[in-house]
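Technical note accompanying the year-one report. For the benefit of new consortium partners, we illustrate the data format agreed upon in the data management plan: each record pairs a sequence with a structure-token string. No post-processing was applied to the example shown here.
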Amino acid sequence: MLIRTTTDPVTLKDVPNPGQHPYILDGDWQSGLLIHFENEQTRKIFQALDEDDHKLVLKGDSSDDYIAEG
């Protein structure tokens, strides 16, 4: 399943008409993550982030050994 987000992860603003804006596809068109950006500048900012800079934090626990249960 392709997961698509139209909220720019840098500005946190909704991207209107996402087909007319830059994006990043992580994975493939069948089972990837498609992230749309407001403009090319925010796409480049996101790409320049270190992986630790945009780590998903669950329940306020950002430790590397956290295991989600459930």
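Partners are asked to follow this layout when depositing records. DSSP finds one helix and three strands in the chain.
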